[in-house]
Design brief:
three-stranded antiparallel β-sheet, about 20% strand, alpha+beta, elongated, about 110 residues, about 40% helix, Double Stranded RNA Binding Domain, 3 helices
């Protein structure tokens, strides 16, 4: 049985519903509304646990938690040729690879 605590949960305020909404990134179709953030988190965690139990009992696949997925550290990004040229020049001027420049820039982006 999969550990329910390894999924990625988020609680945000819903102006439309005038309540907090708890969500699980691995189950984007599920959500739980509640008057407090704590209740929204508890509710969505219980809902995910029920769905996981149902999936497991019926032999259906359960999404792998983001926290346990292996990541290669590579992804392909397509950008306009002019931006590619500008970044390559900037990387050369800084004496670093284009990969290092992009990695440094991405690491500074606030989540």
């Amino acid at each position: 049985m999969l550990n329910n605590d390894r999924f990625t949960y988020r609680v945000t305020w819903s102006e439309e519903d005038n309540e907090y909404v708890g969500q699980c990134l691995e189950f984007p179709s599920l959500s739980w509304l509640a008057p407090t953030p704590e209740e929204a988190l508890t509710g969505v965690r219980q809902l995910v646990a029920e769905v996981v139990r149902d999936l497991e009992s019926s032999g259906e696949p359960v999404p792998e938690p983001l926290s346990t997925r292996p990541f290669s550290g590579r992804f392909l990004v397509r950008i306009p040729p002019e931006l590619h040229r500008r970044l390559a020049i900037e990387a050369a001027e800084a004496g670093v690879s284009l990969n290092r420049l992009a990695s440094d820039r991405l690491s500074r982006v606030e989540a």
